[in-house]
Amino acid sequence: MRIGDAAAAVGLTPRALRYYEERGLFTARRSRVGHREYGAEDLDRLRAVRELLDAGLTIRDVESLVPVLDGRPPEVGPATGDGGAGGCPVENVTLRRLDGLDQAIERLTALRGRLAHALDHRFGDGFRTAVARQPRETPVDRAA
């Protein structure tokens, strides 16, 4: 299948497919005349890349996961020099991203508390109902 059909099949644009290939996230086969050709395996790979990006990883993060996407075992990095060991890129990337999300959640929770307090202090009863309401349940909370 050609680039336009492949892009539509995975919910991306042809430009995104070219960019992912440029960054080394996958390699499209070429026809005799140089057109990119995509098969089912390519579409699976592109869906995996899109899911990782949609989940909050960056292009650079996904680049570090290419060996794993290729089905190779993850390499363990060298010692960091600060007494810490290297580690598996998958573990390093995911733990770093999860830590960042945890920090963002803490900042937003504190911000919500400050706003609720300020509204209650400034406007009193007019905002008590909204201020007292707990944060909405997230899909992650429901899954736990």
TrEMBL record:
Keywords on record: DNA-binding, Transcription, Transcription regulation
Molecular function GO labels: DNA binding; DNA-binding transcription factor activity
Pfam families according to UniProt: MerR_1
InterPro entries, sorted: DNA-bd_dom_put_sf (IPR009061), MerR-type_HTH_dom (IPR000551), MerR_fam (IPR047057)
Stored PROSITE patterns: HTH_MERR_1 (PS00552), HTH_MERR_2 (PS50937)
Signal peptide: none
Coiled coil residues, start to end: none
Domain HTH merR-type: 1-68
PANTHER family: HEAVY METAL-DEPENDENT TRANSCRIPTIONAL REGULATOR HI_0293-RELATED (PTHR30204:SF94), REDOX-CYCLING DRUG-SENSING TRANSCRIPTIONAL ACTIVATOR SOXR (PTHR30204)
Protein name as catalogued: MerR-family transcriptional regulator
